[in-house]
Every structure is written in structure tokens, then in C-alpha cells.
Amino acid sequence: MNRVIFLLLLCFQGLFAQVQFEATVSKNTLGINERLRIDFTMNEDGDNFSPPAFEGFRVVGGPNQAVSYSWINGKKSFNKSFSYFLMPLKKGPVIIKSASIEIDGKVYKTNPVKVTVTNAVQEEVNPYYPQQKTGEGIHLVAEISKTNPYINEPITVVYKLYVSNTASVRNWREMASPKYNDFWSQNIDIKKLVVENGKYNGEDYRYVVLRKTVLYPQKAGKLEIEPLSLDIEVDLPTGRRDFFGRMEYASGNKTVSAGAKSINVRTLPEAGKPIDFTGAVGDFDFKVTPSKTTLKAGESLNLVVSVSGKGNLKLFNLPKPVVPSALEMYDPEHKEKVTTPLSGMQGEVSDAYAIIPQYKGNYLIKPMVFSYFDLSANKYKTINSPEIMINVMDGPSPTSGDNQVASVTGKQNVVANDQFQFIKLKTNLTSIHQKGFLGSGLFYSLLVAPFLIIPIIVLARKKKEAIDGDVVGNKIRQSNKLAKRFLSEANKQMGNKEAFYVAMEKALHNFLKAKLHIETSEMSKENIQELLLSKKATPETVQNFLGLMDSCEFARYTPASVGTMQQDYDKAVTVISGLEKQITN
């Protein structure tokens, strides 16, 4: 009986003496400027310990190994651990994968550990990382020019790194970039870092400007600017001195953050707001300039609508001209000559409209209105352009049914009966006294020639009238010309991202107008795909064309290299050439 009880005790002892291999962390949620300690602990000694790759972290300390033995009431207890100190490299959830070890010929693994990395937090001394105590004397500051701007009023954020005279900074790496949600932002390039002397909390410091950014708030209310965080390699005094009395320094890393900032954005006043106001804020001049006012039907003129000055030039819509239906107006070519210094955007933006008259007559382009909010005067201002008269000297007259294209005189245009104006009604005859001419071959040739030439001239005149009256055909031909023109303009703008992709987009739109006979308002992806496929274009080419349109749309608002632009341009040439061959009219 005693033997049975003894064997049972041994079995239970075997059950409770299972191998344990676990991973524990100092915290499951930490700021991106904090350190994390992870311990891999086992209750039996083992070999071939293999740590995880620590993806999303950088190892700044360890592995530190600790072993402990204890005997309690004659029972042996063993504990062994490997400790690492980690610095997060990115925000968000991060998984620390399993570590492994071999114990008594069997491989054991820890469970994966999930850690959430948040924005930078107020720094505290980490008891697991005493080196952090030496991080004093280094500060990252975000200086904001104004904390209560209007919507679309420019503000600046300047990031400065302050270093005390007792600390030495060797290098730094950006861990978390600031995010400007609900702001239009423009970084200002700093070509060379310059060390300057200044004050921080009343004490003498050296500082360097790391980044300058111009912001335009896009909505009212309290907006947050997420912080900039840096991992800095530093040499800091230890407080100890060597044999010769010189201060000893220790190398290490320190994470600094500028901290989150709040901006309270005011709405623009409702009192006095013009109906046509589209969000322009600043100090502007407004002009509408035609390239010419006298021309023939079928010729083109450029009507340039431009706004110049200082303000949010890229963040509002230019007024669109309203022209009589006899003036065929195409989508504008948008141009921006804007620079963004620390004081905000300044320069000029313009829309150039290609206009082609269809009939002769005088046509009025009504005055245009541009309104903006003047920050210096704290009120709205309106600029009116003068009216423009377009005189079409030559071309077909509108038919009696074309009431909508009557000239500005208010009189109805009447069709002139001039189909046979080329026939001279009055002739000057002279006597021919030449022997043998009457009844000769030359005589009969000259006699019959007018009757043979008249049908040819009539047909040529009819053909010209048909071409002049073919409004749809003229649109197609003009769209083809504009597509080639904008594609050529895109090639010229290689390296200038915004201008390049605007020209590319115009080229694609005008190509569709020419081939599918549709307007810009009809250019949904579903409609384009259906029409191209119905005209025998291959599905692969259609998808490449739609993908190119998406690329143009997104690339205007995201970074793009010259290589990327060249690839998109080459793709556009290939796709357009392919569709030219595949599409059937």
C-alpha cells in the first residue's frame, strides 16, 4: 500500500514539474519615446536559446542573463531569464514573435506578445533603463506662429532641437513624423543645418532648426498636430572623472518628442460673405485676358482667368467664364506659378480656356466676379472683370433654327443667299480677230470649261460649308489637337510634379472626348470602361487606361519622383497608341 502511495506521489510530482518557458513585458502599451523591457524566463536550464527578430523595435540593451537557485522545504527551485531592452520604431500594434530554447532534447517556444505603441508621452525615468536619466539637456520644441487662425489662414510650425552646453549630439533619426490631419501642408527645404545660440527655460543652449512647415487649416474647431519624435545618439557626462581629472562621457540613445499641439481654428465671418465666395483668403488681384478679340470662325483664342497675390492660391476654385453657345469652350489648362516661403503661398494661378467660334457675329463674354477674404482688413472684397466683346469677322452664318447663337445685337441672323457669289455677273468682252480661232479646239475648250468647273467649285463650297457646320466633327478634331498638345506639355513639365500630372490628365480627357464623343461630366470610370469595350478595345488596355487616370489623380497629392513621372508618361504614350489602333468608330 505504501509503495502504491509513493508511486502516485512521484506521478503527481512529475505532473507539477512541467517545463515552463514564458515571455513577459514591462508594459503592453507604451509611447514611441519610451523603452520596453522583455524577459524570457524558464524554470529548467536549457541550451540553444534563440530570441525573436524584434520586428518594429531596435535592441538598445541586452541580452542580460540571470540565474537563481532556491531550496524551500527540501524542494529545489530553478529560474533562468534573458532580458532585452527595446526601443519602438513605429506606432501602432506590434507583435513580438516567439523565442525558442532546447531543454532535455525538446524545443520549447514562448507565446507571441502583442504591444501597442502610441504617440510620445511625457518622459519618466524608466527603472529598467537607468541610462535615460542622463538624457537631460536635450529638448525638441515645436514653435507655432499662431494658435487661433481663420480657416485657410497660413500658420508656421518650426521644429528646433535644443542641446545644452554639456551634452553632445552625434546623430538622429526620425521615429515618428508629424501628421497634419485637416491641414494643407508644405514643408520648406532646409539645405544646411546651422547651429545657433539661444535660450531654453532661461538657460543658455545651442539649437538647430530641423524642419519648417507652412499649414493652412481646412476646417474650424480644435485640430491636433501629432508630434515629431527623434531617436538621438548622444554623448552625455556621467559625473565621474578619469585619473587626469577629465570628465567621463557615456554614449547612448535618447528619444525626444515635440509633443502634440492643439490649434483652435476660427470660421470665416458670415456677415458680408459674397454668394460666389469659394474660400480664397489673402490679398489678391484678379484678371481676365483674351489673346485676341477679332478672329474668324474656326480660329481659336485663349481666354486666361488668373489670380495673383499672396494667400491660399492652391486651395480655391477660379471663376469659370460663361460664353454664348456659338463659342465652343474647352476644358481649361491650369497653371500654377506659386512659391511657399515661411510667410505662406504667393504667386499666380490661372486657367487658360481654348475658345473656337462656330459662326460669324459679335459675341459678349459677361463680366466675371472674384471674391476673397482679406486678412489684413478683416473683411470680404470683390473684384469685377470688364466685359469682353468677341468679333468673328468671317465664317458661316447660323441657320434660321439657330436662335441661340444670335449675335449680341439682338437681331436674328438671316441666311445669306450667297452660294453662287463666286460667279461674276458682269463681264468685259473684247473682240477676237485671230485667224482660225473661231471653231478651233481651243475655242470649244474655253467654251465648255466654265460648265465643267462650275460643279467642281459648287462641290468644294458645299464641302467647306459642311466642315464649318460640322460642330461635332470640329469638337473631335479640336480634342485630338488638345490631347497631343497636353501630352507634349506633360513631357516638357517632367520633374514638375503638379504641372506634369495636370497636363497628363488633360491629355487623357481630351483623348476620350475625341474617341468616345463624351464630355467631362460623363467621364465616370464605369461609363468609360463600357464605351471603350463597346468599341472593341481590349480589356487589358482599358484597365491600363483607367489605372493611368487613377495614377494621375493620386500622384498630384502624393510624392512622385522623376522616374515615376517618366514611367507614367511612357505608359500614357503606349496606352493611347494602343487604343488608337483598337478603337473602331
Could you provide a short overview of the structure?
With 585 residues, the chain is α+β, with helices and mostly antiparallel strands. It is 23% helix and 38% strand.
Helix-strand blueprint:
Blueprint: H1 2-16, E1 21-25, E2 29-31, E3 36-42, E4 47-50, E5 57-72, E6 75-88, E7 92-96, E8 100-103, E9 106-109, E10 113-118, E11 138-144, E12 155-164, E13 168-176, E14 183-188, E15 195-200, E16 203-217, E17 221-225, E18 229-241, E19 247-257, E20 261-265, E21 282-290, E22 294-295, E23 301-311, E24 327-329, E25 333-339, E26 346-357, E27 361-365, E28 369-374, E29 379-384, E30 388-392, H2 441-469, H3 471-492, H4 497-516, H5 525-534, H6 539-555, H7 562-582
Summary tags:
7 helices; alpha+beta; 585 residues; 5-stranded antiparallel β-sheet; Immunoglobulin-like
- Helix content estimate: 10-25%
Mean pLDDT: 78
Major β-sheet profile: 5 strands, antiparallel
Shape: elongated
Number of domains: 4
How many helices in DSSP terms? 7
Sequence stretches where pLDDT stays below 50 over 5 or more residues = 9-16, 124-135, 409-423
Strand content: 35-45%
End-to-end separation in angstroms reads 102 Å
- DSSP summary, beta strand count: 30
